[in-house]
Amino acid sequence: MIDFDLLAPPVLSRSGVLRDEPLRTDTARQVAGWPSARLVVVDPEGRTPVEWDAAPQGGFRAADAGSWDVAAGGARLKTRATSGDAPTPDAVLLGERDHIAYWAVRGKPDLLAGDDPSEWVDLRMTGAVLDALGAGLFTTAVAALNWHDSARFCSRDGSPTHPANAGWHRHCEAAGHEEYPRTDPAVICLVHDGGTGPDARVLLARQPVWPARRYSVLAGFVEAGESLEACVLREIHEEVGATVSDVRYLGSQSWPFPRSLMVGFHAVADPSVTLVPADGEIAEAFWATRADVRAALGEGDWSASGEAPFLLPGSVSIARSMIEAWAAL
């Protein structure tokens, strides 16, 4: 059984801020730091303004505080200054960096203030090329604000809820119940044949809603009472009829669309067993050689316009990190 690790942390798992829980209850510190704080403004479509540098050169380097950063090029978030004397009730404290607090709020381009709407992009477009600070801030902002949008009423009695604890829980108006941000765990698994060399094979699949030639590895949500490893076995069998073994953890990253945590694994299956794609869930599934995967990676990602037989996900997805790690063996 071959084993391998990711070549670098998944891009949306990087962060450059201190987000300790005591910061969220220290109202005196929040008020004192508000005049110098910065706002990450996210519109209802999940976009925020970004300043682009030269095209990224690829690769990663170690950054401070145990995080990771894009090696060269990329993009930076454009944050706003605060106004008023204290944090607004709807603001979410994302964390601190170099004694500066960062908060997330809903908003839109302010044309009177000189905002350029063309600079507003979503996390899927820019997450892979933001530095660690920007990636962590943007990912957390989208995840937290998505939760607030869907948690305005108590799940117990339906009464209105109000944000508290610097945006990290909501209080039920009727009975004071506390609601906390929801994260839905999902597994994503790279299934391979356990072989080495250019002829080793990996299982790729395409959902019915994806255009032709766009493929990725298999994924699915964890059910109540189910372990991550058990979910891998169940999902792979349900989706393509394959039985996997030697399930091993690779890494994880937030996927706030709207509130998932993608937990990555790799596992082994027998490519001689006939694949049975699940009706309505998997349009096509096939085994690709390492040589073909390397060629597809060289074509770019799903947005490529070439004539490659198949295209693979972009760098913002943990799927890309997993495929690249396997292809590098």
TrEMBL record:
Cited CDD domains: NUDIX_NADH_pyrophosphatase_Nudt13 (cd03429)
The protein's Enzyme Commission number: 3.6.1.22
GO molecular function: metal ion binding; NADH pyrophosphatase activity
Lyase is among the record's keywords: no
A Pfam family recorded for this sequence: Zn_ribbon_NUD
Gene3D superfamilies cross-referenced by the UniProt entry: 3.90.79.20, Nucleoside Triphosphate Pyrophosphohydrolase
Nudix hydrolase domain segment(s): 181-310
Essential cofactor(s): Mg(2+); Zn(2+)
Assigned GO CC terms: cytosol
Gene Ontology biological process terms, A to Z: NAD+ catabolic process; NADP+ catabolic process
Catalytic activity entry: a 5'-end NAD(+)-phospho-ribonucleoside in mRNA + H2O = a 5'-end phospho-adenosine-phospho-ribonucleoside in mRNA + beta-nicotinamide D-ribonucleotide + 2 H(+)
Assigned keywords, A-Z: Hydrolase, Magnesium, Manganese, Metal-binding, NAD
Family: Belongs to the Nudix hydrolase family. NudC subfamily.
Xref: NCBIfam families: PRK00241.1
Protein name per the record: NAD(+) diphosphatase
